[in-house]
Write a structure and sequence with these properties.
CATH superfamily of one domain: P-loop containing nucleotide triphosphate hydrolases
Oligomer: single chain
Structural class: alpha/beta
CATH architecture of one domain: 3-Layer(aba) Sandwich
CATH topology of one domain: Rossmann fold
Strand content: 15-25%
Largest sheet: 6 strands, mixed
Radius of gyration: 23 Å
Bound molecules: guanosine-5'-diphosphate, zinc ion
Distance between the termini: 39 Å
Order of helices and strands: EHHEEEHEEEEEHEHEEHEEEHHHH
Shape: globular
Strand order of the largest sheet: 11-10-9-12-15-14
């Protein structure tokens, strides 16, 4: 059962239209950059935010309704696919009843993962996130190395990570878990919760202010849905079910969605980061391993891999017990993985570029045609 929650109270329709729309868009997480980018559109264009994706069609939140639309041929030929959380421009022609996505507005953050088997390109799984809750749980799931991996991915996305250790009620020594986590987390906040008992949730409040967008990532079973349910106050929110069918009427299940919490924050449920791959997270490694990066500035070689090179300050730090050896190994493994991914991406990109140039002329013509219609 899926639910989409309407964000706009009825009374808002009494307000002057312009302010109304702008306020509503801000409630959906719209920012200045997007507002500026949209300002060059005049005519039958309206902005909205992608709440979920069903193979080729998208549910888009508008200030006062949710519509299901496709993308323009021009956008498709440019290889541009909206992701959940994207702000998009719809061409809206009430006379013909036709509405479609013709543009994707600039993203303030992009959460992606490596997509093996499609030429190495990264798949965008959610856009315009402000904060990502990396959820783990006391017990079997708890694994510092996995947390480092998630941190790298989230740091690379441009969103702010927060580590949530859930199921504190079953932890033998919850404080020890927090301490161990804080040791690898750098500046990332660590929050201990029990979604089942409703404890610790208040500590998430500061990351859930109105107009911000958060996503929850983490292994299945750690309590993400339970957390979201605890944060939702069903008595305040009007909810309705949306059943998902693809074009042939088959029920689909791979839906990601965006909805609002009573506190005004938007949440992306299940953004599909199950088995997390590093994707293009190389950029996030320096932030995730800031301690290693700092020692590395004293290595003799600038491209030191801290793998037996002479004059390696990181190895020295490990020997001196300043960095746990497993942490260095984890770092090295992730660097290798990111390099491999980058190589795959490079090959994939070249292929994509070729395809793009072939289509770009045609796409431009098509776009003009659609605009002029
Ligand atoms: P998800 O796959 O991450 O969405 O995990 P779910 O929210 O479906 O939770 C998986 C299981 O863990 C369910 O049986 C929940 O009842 C249980 N669970 C969730 N949060 C807690 C918690 O704080 N403490 C305990 N003991 N169990 C929890
Ligand atoms: Zn070194």
């Amino acid at each position: 059962m899926k639910r989409i929650i309407m964000t706009i109270p009825e009374e808002s329709s009494n307000q002057p239209e312009q302010t109304d729309t702008t306020t509503a868009l801000h409630e959906l997480g719209w920012d200045e950059k997007q507002e500026n980018a949209f300002s060059r559109y005049t005519g039958p264009y309206i902005p909205g935010r992608v709440a979920s994706r069903h193979k080729t069609v998208f549910d888009v939140l508008l200030p006062d309704e949710t519509v299901r639309v496709g993308t323009s041929g021009a956008l498709r030929r440019l290889g541009k696919v909206p992701a959940v959380g994207d702000f998009v421009v719809l061409l809206d022609q009430p006379e013909t009843g036709s509405r479609m996505i013709v543009d994707i507005l600039p993203r303030r953050s992009t959460l992606s993962r490596g997509a093996p088997g499609d030429g190495g390109s990264c798949q965008v799984i959610a856009a315009n996130l402000d904060t990502v809750f990396i959820v783990t749980a006391a017990g079997r799931d708890f694994n510092l190395r996995r947390l480092e991996r998630y941190l790298a991915v989230v740091h690379a996305s441009g969103a702010r990570p927060v580590i949530v250790i859930n199921k504190s009620d079953v932890a033998e020594d919850a404080d020890a878990l927090v301490e161990e986590t804080a040791a690898i987390a750098g500046d990332t906040p660590v929050v201990l919760t029990s979604a089942r008992e409703g404890s610790g949730l208040a500590a998430l409040g500061p990351f859930l202010s109105a107009g911000t967008t958060v996503a929850l990532v983490g292994s299945s079973g750690v309590g993400k849905s339970t957390l979201i349910n605890a944060l939702l106050d069903d008595t305040v929110q009007e909810t309705f079910d949306v059943r998902d069918y693809d074009e042939r009427g088959r029920h689909t299940t791979t839906v990601r969605q965006l909805f609002s919490l009573p506190c005004g924050a938007m949440v992306i449920d299940n953004p599909g980061v199950r088995e997390i791959q590093l994707g293009n997270a190389a950029a996030g490694l320096a932030e995730t391993f800031a301690d290693i990066a700092e020692f590395a500035t004293d290595c003799r070689y600038r491209d030191c891999r801290h793998d037996g090179e002479p004059g390696c300050a990181v190895q020295e730090a490990v020997n001196a017990g300043l960095i746990p050896e497993e942490r260095l190994l984890s770092y090295q493994r992730l660097v290798k993985e990111a390099d491999f991914q980058a190589e795959k991406d490079d090959i994939g990109l070249k292929r994509l570029e070729k395809k793009k140039y072939k289509w770009i002329g045609k796409a431009a013509k098509q776009l003009n045609k659609e605009k002029g219609r």
